[in-house]
Specification:
By secondary structure, the chain is mainly alpha-helical. The chain is built from 25 helices and two strands. The chain has a two-stranded antiparallel ribbon. The two termini are 18 Å apart.
């Protein structure tokens, strides 16, 4: 690179660096302000319930009757639904995810490992409204057949606590698998080799060496998955049945915190709205604590205690001691161990198949139902009233594209500036706070962000005059969801740029802002683009926050000051319709949305390559 221009004085370079530092610091403090505003709004909006006579009934009563005299806001039934569906999901997803990760890490050949890792990433990228739509028409009828076979009731065509728990299990298992795979691969090779040299089979090595060593990371993965399950909105709303009563049967329908907020917040009167926001505050606290615990365990697990060769040998030899003495050093023992090894290898392979299998079921079923529904009218026309044929969702596709693109225009520059602040000004006193808040925002359920945007831009809490639904409110919610993803991926990308490149730039007389703009950012551009595409794919399938902000109409989007149609709303609403034409449009919309998400994820793979910035090869 070339040095600074000759007319640039040292004073102007210092002024430029100071301005650049203030800009990056301002972006970081803006993120902190967003988080503080989120918490403040939740507290302010829920205060009428928290300070009044309803505060105890909120957590002790199961009677939810906002229109009663007096009104009763007992949330136990929603808390139970949230916990029950999450528990079912964890019971199913944890063994499947850990088993699939162990197979990929220790047994699978490289081709299977790469292919299945990509498939698991695709499974994690499917929007929750698509999960719910597929579950409503494919999974719920299968669950009802099981209910009928075992003599259970026909409550809601298979919908209920069990069905919602199953769909949550499918949604969270990719998170458990991906993180567990990473921590298993981080186990030192010497521990594996020490176990195998002492005569352990591959399964014994996995069970007694790899999994115990990776235990902190596995527990952290479970906490992250639990936080995801607790905050899930759309899939649970579509499958849980939305009945506010207690029934501890697996056949029962129910409701969850997120689903009751999504269903009732828009139409709620002031006091019921405060109670719903209080539920949102409770959900925020639970998910925040869950995610902070997971982050702590991941950080702790990334600094394992050093183990000596003697320790490894002792741990490995315990494998043999776990078996009865009559088997040791005998032919029967060796045959038994080989049989157990083959059985457990098959079991781990089955876990992997059960993990990636739903991806093909979802893609295949939606492609089958949606391909025949897409025609020229769907791509160019507006929707028609129920019962009429020939309508389309062109306006919703255009509205979704507008919301995603404009949200990206806001979120990407701010996110990159925050990442620069965290990377290049790492010794500043606020960097730790900004990084912590960023991680906290990344785990906030989308429905909570929707409540925040609703209380600020749709029905402001400081005035009795509502602003109304608008595209700007939806853009604000989507941009807020994008920020943590852009910040984290950009920060990790810039960390990979060798310090030697920075030092060479400074040696040539460049200022700090010149070094960042001309050296650091170009060198890390490829992974940053990957992060941006990942964030765009994440918000492209969002539904819950837009239901509370963007609203929607049946016309072409005219202005962002008005209600703005978006594609996922029609998938959600038409999934509940008995009109076959509206269901057809919903299937077509699901296929279009899924195709966009898959395209973005394939583009991420192509752009990321081996997930390594080109400048990192300079070392």
């Amino acid at each position: 690179m070339t040095g600074p221009s000759s007319h640039e004085s040292p004073k102007s370079r210092r002024l430029g660096d100071w301005f650049f530092q203030c800009l990056c610091k301002g972006a970081g403090l803006f993120v902190v302000g967003l988080a503080a505003g989120l918490v403040a709004v939740l507290i302010i909006q829920s205060w009428p319930v928290l300070k009044g006579a309803f505060q105890y009934r909120l957590l002790t009563s199961s009677n939810w009757d906002p229109g009663g005299e007096p009104p009763v806001f007992g949330a136990l039934v929603f808390i139970y639904g949230t916990l029950a569906t999450s528990l079912i999901a964890m019971v199913i997803a944890v063994p499947l995810g850990v088993g699939a990760a162990a197979f990929l890490s220790e047994i699978a050949p490289p081709f299977i490992r790469r292919t299945c890792s990509f498939l698991i990433e695709l499974l994690a990228a499917i929007p929750s409204v698509v999960y719910g739509f597929w579950g409503l028409f494919f999974l719920a009828p299968m669950v009802q057949r099981v209910f009928t076979f075992v003599g259970g009731p026909n409550n809601a065509a298979g919908q209920g606590i069990l069905c919602a728990g199953l769909i949550l299990a499918i949604m969270i298992v990719p998170y458990i698998t991906a993180i567990t795979f990473d921590v298993c691969r981080a186990v030192p090779r010497s521990q594996r080799e020490g176990s195998l040299v002492l005569g352990a089979t591959r399964w014994q090595m996995i069970w007694t060496v790899v999994l115990p060593y990776a235990r902190p990371g596995i527990i952290a993965a479970c906490f992250l998955a639990l936080g995801r399950a607790l905050g899930e909105t759309m899939a649970v709303t579509m499958l849980i049945g939305n009945k506010a009563y207690f029934d501890f049967s697996l056949f029962a329908t129910g409701s969850s915190i997120a689903s009751i907020i999504a269903n009732q917040l828009n139409e709620a009167a002031p006091l019921p709205r405060s109670s719903l926001v209080a539920l949102g505050l409770l959900l925020f606290v639970i998910t925040a604590l869950t995610n902070m615990t997971a982050r702590y365990l991941i950080g702790r697990g990334s600094r394992p205690k050093a183990r000596t060769g003697r320790t490894i040998a002792i741990e490995s030899v315990l494998v043999v001691d776990k078996l009865p003495e009559r088997f040791v050093e005998s032919a029967t023992h060796r045959r038994w161990m080989r049989l157990v090894n083959r059985l457990m290898t098959a079991a781990l392979a089955s876990c992997l198949a059960a993990t990636v299998g739903p991806l093909f079921l979802i893609l295949g079923y939606i492609a089958w139902r949606g391909a025949s529904a897409i025609d020229w009218n769907f791509l160019t026309q507006l929707p028609k009233p129920a019962g009429e044929l020939g309508g389309g969702l062109a306006h919703a596709m255009l509205g979704s594209a507008e919301l995603v693109m404009i949200a990206s225009l806001f979120a990407v520059p701010i996110g990159i500036l925050v990442a620069v602040y965290l990377t290049e000004f790492k010794n500043h006193r606020f960097t730790g706070t900004v990084r912590f808040i960023t991680e906290l925002l990344g785990g906030v359920p989308s429905i909570i962000i929707g409540i925040f945007a609703y209380a600020v831009l749709v029905r402001p809490f400081w005035t009795s005059t509502p602003f109304g639904f608008s595209g700007w409110a939806g853009i604000f919610a989507l941009a807020m969801m994008m920020l943590p993803i852009v910040i984290r991926t950009s920060e990790e990308s810039m960390k990979l740029v060798p310090s030697s490149l920075r030092q060479a730039s400074y040696a040539l007389g460049a200022s700090q802002w010149q070094t960042v703009l001309r050296v650091v950012l170009p060198a890390s551009l490829s992974p940053i683009i990957t992060g941006v595409l990942l964030a765009m794919g994440r918000i492209a399938g969002e539904t819950a926050p837009l239901l509370l902000t963007a609203g929607g109409n049946i016309y072409w989007p005219r202005s962002l000051d008005d209600e703005t149609p978006f594609l996922t709303r029609y998938i959600f609403e038409y999934s509940k319709s008995a009109d076959h034409e509206q269901q057809r449009l919903a299937w077509a919309a699901a296929l279009v949305l899924l195709s966009v998400i898959m395209f973005l994820n394939i583009a991420i793979r192509l752009v990321a390559g081996k997930r390594m910035v080109s400048a990192a090869r300079a070392d």
